[in-house]
Specification:
The structure holds 2 protein chains of 2 kinds. Chain A is of the alpha/beta class. Chain A is built from 10 helices and 16 strands. Chain A has one domain: Alpha-Beta Barrel (TIM Barrel), CATH 3.20.20. Chain B has 3 domains: 82 residues, Translation factors (Elongation Factor Tu (Ef-tu), domain 3); 115 residues, Nucleotide-binding domain of ferredoxin-NADP reductase (FNR) module (Rossmann fold, 3-Layer(aba) Sandwich), CATH 3.40.50; 53 residues, Dihydroorotate dehydrogenase B (pyrk subunit), domain 3, CATH 2.10.240. The termini of chain B are far apart.
Chain lengths: 301, 260
């Protein structure tokens, strides 16, 4: 028997898979369903101060090697989200509250409210590539540091900072989050991208540009996690193109202690969480690893 | 290219069904079952989920001019291109012999392909079609090709003066149906579900919710723990009974659960 339970700082997980933010996270019922499908933790949709309708459609389309989305942070707003968290918490796996704001000063109160709703950790979305305002924070070490410090002083639960790959030096930004007290790094958010439908000569997404996820971005994510692992001591969570056990193992060997899955649900259904766990176990058995921990960052040795 | 990816099709014909409703046909071969839907992109405007009102080598969508996207679509002419992706979702189970098809307004566009498939398989179809007024009756001639059609209008301008669920109940009291297929306003579906449960007749309804991705990822179309795009759009009565949302709540574009 191999052991795939893991920890991300103070957060204990029965298995290393988490639902990535932005997927199925509007409703508590959906989060609960994902939890019961075998995810080790679920991350809520990124919630802001006010209800937000998001970008004009099309806002999610399938491309050759991934998904392109420009949902634009549609969300019901923090005041309407309490009931959803309460339902999600019935799943007996950690619920991680994702928050975003247009200004640094709003992150603290939002995070505090999420904590009051009962989430076991926070994820700071500093990097959505298809929402105005956030890109500014995503690439700025000072702003990341300010937001992290602000939230750290507002809550007691662990605070994870989600980083964008659409930056010059992601490791530097991870260091800024660590120095400001961040309890972990989640990498990566989607890769800024666009697609055009030639016959109609128009960008496909209603918002023109959006974020690419899925198999196409896995090597980018693995690279980012690898670089961040060398730069910080806080735990990492890998995200981007995980759909099978070997994808997860790549991230773990690059330095992640857990992985998030979003687009993978498209390719394999909600069974993806269970399947990835079984495949990680099979890999570990075949290669003589007993505990998941033994593989974390092993590619650096 | 797999048809599930967004691609464009050329409109073959634009047909006026009523002063406010048009059907748009295009030629494309792809496997699709009655009840499934496609995402239709009106380039430069918006993307919306729509039932295919016609299957086979020539496919069609039928749209009432009710908002900015359908208004834009109504300006499209033969030879213009629209974007489509799909088909998505599940389909009607048509394994029984004798069906009552109940449609409210443009809901007829979501069930008429099922009527056609049933008729082609030599099964018996009775359609009960409800609308506000005479002017709203669409796809009537086609429906009559597949079986008997009974009409209800809210204003009594034609047929039964009253709602479609009342007329459906009268028919069910006179005849035995193996199953009911329904699409229309949710209150109508809710009433029909109750009638069918009481009479122990299986009902399948085609549900509508605001959709973004159509492929079970964004969660916009949540109906309790179901996703209408992936688990539906066709639901059996037994799946819907007891849901907190069915007939009561929908989610708006921001994902807020709001009363209907």
């Amino acid at each position: 028997m191999v052991e795939i339970s893991t920890t991300v700082g103070r957060l204990k997980l029965q298995n290393p898979t988490m639902l990535a933010s932005g997927i199925l996270g509007d409703s508590g019922d959906s989060l609960l369903r994902v939890a019961r499908s075998g995810a080790g933790a679920v991350v809520t949709k990124s919630i802001g101060r006010e209800p937000r309708e998001g970008n004009p459609s099309p806002s999610l389309v399938e491309l050759e090697h991934g998904l392109l989305n420009g949902i634009g942070l549609a969300n019901p707003g923090i005041d309407n989200y309490r009931a959803e968290v309460e339902v999600a918490l019935q799943g007996d796996v950690p619920v991680i509250g994702s928050v975003f704001a247009e200004d640094v000063e709003f992150y603290g109160p939002l995070a505090r409210t999420m904590e009051v709703y009962g989430v076991q950790a926070l994820e700071l979305n500093l990097s959505c590539p298809h929402a105005e305002g956030l890109e500014e924070i995503a690439g700025d070490a000072d702003l990341i540091s300010q937001v992290t410090a602000e939230v750290k002083s507002a809550v007691k639960v662990p605070v994870f900072v989600k980083l964008s790959p659409n930056v010059r030096d992601i490791a530097l930004l991870a260091q800024a989050a660590e120095e400001a007290g961040g309890d972990g790094i989640i990498a990566i958010n989607t890769v800024k991208a666009m697609s055009i439908l030639p016959e109609v000569a128009k960008p496909v997404l209603g918002q023109t540009m959006g974020g690419l996820s899925g198999p196409a971005i896995k090597p980018v994510g693995v690279r980012c996690v690898y670089q961040i692992y060398e730069a910080v001591d806080i735990p990492l969570v890998g995200v981007g193109g995980v759909a099978n056990g070997l994808d997860a193992v790549e991230y773990i060997m690059a330095g992640a202690r857990a992985v998030q899955i979003g687009s993978g649900i498209h390719y394999r259904g909600l069974e993806v969480f269970e399947a990835v766990c079984r495949e990680i176990e099979a890999f570990m058995e075949e290669h003589g690893y007993r505990r998941l921990e033994e593989m974390v960052g092993i590619a650096h040795e | 290219m797999p048809t599930s990816r967004l691609h464009s099709v050329i409109l073959d014909k634009v047909m006026e069904e009523a002063s406010h409703t048009k059907s748009f046909s295009f030629r494309e071969e792809f496997p699709v079952r009655p009840g499934q839907f496609i995402m239709v992109w009106i380039p430069g405007v918006e993307e919306v989920p729509m039932a295919l009102s016609q299957l086979g080598p020539v496919k069609a969508i039928t749209a009432k001019n009710v908002g900015s996207s359908t208004e834009a679509l109504h300006k499209f002419k033969e030879g213009d291109r629209i974007g489509v992706r799909g088909p998505y979702g599940n389909s009607f189970d048509l394994s029984q012999e004798h069906y009552l098809v109940a449609a409210g307004g443009t809901g007829i566009a979501s069930v008429i392909a099922a009527s056609e498939a049933l008729a082609e398989a030599g099964k018996k179809v009775v359609t009960v079609f409800g609308a506000k007024t005479k002017e709203d009756l669409i796809l009537l001639e086609r429906s009559r090709k597949y079986g008997e059609v009974f009409i209800a209008t809210d204003d009594g301008s034609v047929g039964y003066h009253g709602v479609v669920s009342d007329l459906a109940l009268k028919l069910m009291e006179d005849r035995r149906f193996d199953g009911v297929l329904a699409c229309g306003p949710e209150k109508m579906l809710q009433t029909l579900e109750g009638i069918c449960r009481q009479r122990d007749v299986e009902i399948q309804v085609s549900m509508e919710r605001f959709m973004r991705c159509g492929i079970g990822l964004c969660g916009s179309c949540s109906l309790d723990h179901y996703l209408v795009c992936r688990d539906g759009p066709i639901f059996k009565g037994e799946q819907l009974v007891g849901l907190r949302d069915f007939g009561h709540y929908r989610r708006d574009r921001a994902g807020r659960r709001v009363p209907m």
